[in-house]
Automatic annotation (TrEMBL):
Top-level class of the enzyme under EC nomenclature: transferase
Domain of life: Bacteria
Glycosyltransferase recorded as keyword: no
Gene Ontology MF, one: UTP:glucose-1-phosphate uridylyltransferase activity
Pfam families, per the entry: NTP_transferase
EC annotation from Swiss-Prot or TrEMBL: 2.7.7.9
Protein name per the record: UTP--glucose-1-phosphate uridylyltransferase
InterPro entries in the record: GalU_uridylyltTrfase_bac/arc, NTP_transferase_dom, Nucleotide-diphossugar_trans
Segments forming domain Nucleotidyl transferase: 13-279
Reaction equation(s) it catalyzes: alpha-D-glucose 1-phosphate + UTP + H(+) = UDP-alpha-D-glucose + diphosphate
Length: 314
């Protein structure tokens, strides 16, 4: 078992960076935080908090910015609405409304200057202290049927250092991600990261293993982030700090391991993937799926010009 002191502590805190402006979803995000855009009938950010809670984390710090007050309101009590629902006897909706305020102990700190993901994580230093912690990005929704974070926490506890989540992507898409050079370990599905490159050109990518928005980090990352100069895009990149940690021994905050994830993941980072995420999750819902999927089949048949498959009924 790893002897790194930070590896011996249980991960109890999670950081959710939520200060981005959401410009890809304008004009919807002109006055509404992108994290509050609904995925079926819950805002995306609620799925992320639920994932952290399911992994045993009950202390959440959101890194916010201007125009993000709706996040705080969503995870707060809504006394007037609760009273109205109680008066109407609508106890099912009352329970749904109350649930978000009872999920976890949620705290907030403002990032101030938009200096990138690395800077957002650095804003969490005082709250996190000197213990390992999780970072969850709201653009990636992990299906609750394929838990990822508990595996990452367990790997960190056993091996020490930091842990990132990796997926295999088409080599032509590596420029969209931070990519990892890795070497195998004695454990299936777990690799040791030897190098990281943020959004490389296709010909420069060390592999087709891409980092997605789940991390378990040691507090040594804060020390590195303070010294990390702006990188790609003029921002302080978390990938650059992890690259430094990957080259360090356990006694100095390293190494970095990767957990290969092959489960269901919903990318809500762009419009098309956001819509696909809604359709997939809606189809899997017991209360919505059967009727919605039947309509969807008819709609697709109509668009494909196949009246035998339902165009006449659409």
């Amino acid at each position: 078992m790893a002897q790194n002191g930070s590896a011996q502590r249980t991960v109890t805190k999670a950081v959710i960076p939520a200060a981005g402006r959401g410009t890809r979803f304008l004009p919807a995000t002109k006055a509404t935080p992108k994290e509050m855009l609904p995925v079926v009938d819950k805002p995306a950010i609620e799925y992320v908090v639920e994932e952290a809670v399911a992994a045993g984390i009950d202390d959440i710090l959101m890194i916010t910015g201007r125009g993000k007050r709706a996040l705080e309101d969503h995870f707060d009590r809504a006394y007037e609405l609760e009273h109205e629902l109680r008066q109407k006897g609508d106890m099912d909706k009352l329970a749904e409304v109350q649930r978000s305020s009872q999920l976890a102990d949620v705290h907030y700190v403002r990032q101030g200057d938009p200096k990138g993901l690395g800077h957002a994580v650095l804003c969490a230093e005082k709250h996190v202290g000197r213990q390992p912690f999780a970072v969850l990005l709201g653009d990636d929704l992990i299906d609750e049927r394929d838990p990822l974070l508990p595996t990452m926490i367990e790997v960190q506890k056993r091996k020490g250092g930091s842990v990132v989540a990796l997926i295999e992507v088409d080599p032509s898409q590596v420029y969209l991600y931070g990519c990892a050079a890795v070497e195998p370990t004695d454990e299936e599905g777990v690799v040791r990261v030897t190098d990281l490159v943020e959004k490389p050109d296709v010909e420069d990518a060390p592999s087709n293993l891409a980092i997605i928005g789940r991390y378990v980090l040691t507090p040594e990352v804060f020390d590195i982030l303070r010294e990390t100069p702006p990188g790609r895009g003029g921002e302080i990149q978390l990938t650059d700090a992890l690259r430094t940690l990957a080259r360090r021994p356990e006694s100095d905050g390293g190494p970095v391991h990767g957990v290969l994830f092959r489960g269901r993941r919903y990318d809500t980072g762009d419009k098309a993937d956001y819509l696909r995420a809604i359709v997939r999750l809606a189809c899997d819902r017991e209360d919505l799926g059967p009727s919605f999927l039947a309509w969807l089949k008819d709609f697709v048949a109509e668009r494909s010009g196949d009246p035998a498959n339902g165009a006449d009924r659409a």
